Amino acid sequence: MPGYVMITGASGGFGRVLAAECASRGWDLFLTDIDPAGVETLAVELSARYGVAAQSFACDLTDPALRAALWDFVLSQALQFHMLINVAGVEYEGPFAERRLSQLRTMVRLHVEAVAENTHSILAFRHPSAVLRVINISSLAGFNPMPMKAVYSATKRFIIQFTLALREEFPKEQVTFTAVAPAGMPTTERAIKGIKAQGLLGKLTALEAKEVARCSIDYALSGRAEYIPGAINRVVKFLTGLLPDTLMAKLIGWRWKQAYQKCEKEGDTAGVIK
User: Fold this and answer.
1) CATH label of the domain that carries residue 109
2) Three-class SS string for the chain?
3) What's the structural domain count of the chain?
4) Which pLDDT band, with edges at 50, 70 and 90, does 273 fall under?
5) Residue 272 covered by a domain
6) Distance, first Cα to last Cα, the chain
7) Is residue 46 within 8 Å of residue 15, measured between CB atoms?
8) How far apart are CA 149 and CA 112, in angstroms?
């Protein structure tokens, strides 16, 4: 495949798994993450293991100036791409009034500003002989209003709507867009705690990241618009879509408040408040 795959948030839990999946297919990588040592080490490891070219560029995507520096570097290296995977994200859960403004801004800047800007910027660097595949990682949370994670779910909803809208603006022979909306994945200790905090539903909806990564890329290569990993999650999305948003907000709010209170009693809100 000509050109590189660009992955944001590459050294995080799901980003790392996606990077390994792409490398296993023989694709060259351009990896970016806020963690300089982590993303550089990952690039070296994947290059050695799979024999692919792997470049890294440390970048805090919440900073407009650093985002500009990222694309200036791409231009200076004359890089071209056949795929962009917008993974970088963060989740701060809990009562809205208790969240710091900096946390709210971070979610908006990562899930809205960075996704839109990266997608716009990469169009100028599409490899001329390849279809550009853009994969935007959203969340199952993006389909419903979610008390206790209001900004997170709203910004993940943006990613879904943004992706589906862009599909109608570009010829499929040039650019395709796919939104991926997973539930929980046990990629880190914190993610595992979050899944456990949700009880039975968390266990039923969680999936292994390797399978989600493989299917996400396969869906994108086939030009599919949307991928919701897991049959149970697809059923949940369908059923919740039949109910009014106001009712869903009440039901989800009740469930998340219960999970939060449980973690508070146990003295551990790490699985709920991230």
Assistant:
1) 3.40.50.720
2) CCCEEEEECCCCHHHHHHHHHHHHCCCEEEEEECCHHHHHHHHHHHHHHHCCCEEEEECCCCCHHHHHHHHHHHHHCCCCEEEEEECCCCCCCCCHHHCCHHHHHHHHHHHHHHHHHHHHHHHHHECCCCCEEEEEECCHHHHCCCCCCHHHHHHHHHHHHHHHHHCCCCCCCCEEEEEECCCCCCCCHHHHHHHHHCCHHHHHHCCCHHHHHHHHHHHHHCCCCEECCCHHHHHHHHHHHCCCHHHHHHHHHHHHHHHHHHHHHCCCCCCCCC
3) 1
4) very low
5) no
6) 37
7) no
8) 16
**Residue 140 lies in domain:** 4-265
Q: What is the mean pLDDT of residues 29-49?
A: 97
Say if 271 falls within a structural domain. no
Q: Give me the half-sphere count of Cα atoms (radius 13 Å) on the Cβ side of residue 119.
A: 28
> Cα 157 vs. chain centroid, distance in angstroms?
12
- Look at residue 252 and tell me whether its pLDDT is greater than 60: yes
Q: Looking at residues 243-248, what average pLDDT do you find?
A: 93
Has this prediction a pTM greater than 0.85? yes
Within-domain flag for 67: yes
At 80 the pLDDT is 97
206 token code pair: 């969680």
Residue 270 lies in a domain: no
Confidence of residue 265 (pLDDT cuts 50, 70, 90): low
